[in-house]
Design a protein that fits this description.
Strand content: 15-25%
Number of strands: 5
Distance between the termini: 16 Å
Radius of gyration: 12 Å
Low-confidence stretches: none
Number of domains: 1
Bound molecules: zinc ion
Strand order of the largest sheet: 2-1-3
Mean pLDDT: 95
Amino acid sequence: MIKFDFNSIPIPLSGKVVEYICPKCKVEFEAPIEMVLEFEQEDEWNNLPISTPPYTICPKCNYNNCVPLDYKSNRGFHHKYKG
Ligand SMILES: [Zn+2]
């Protein structure tokens, strides 16, 4: 599990994280909840279905469709990664 480096971002964050996995290189890593919520908000603005995972970038291989391992979204969908 790659821990999120909170010192890398100059704005105050709550410290809450969501665990992610990269489907490509299988590395697991943390993303701050504020970042995840922002991706969700963008998906909503883009009228994407609530089942769309808030994708983020892999810190190891830069693959940009990493998904949450187990995360209940603000939009009311339970995202669960099935290997
Ligand atoms: Zn990766």
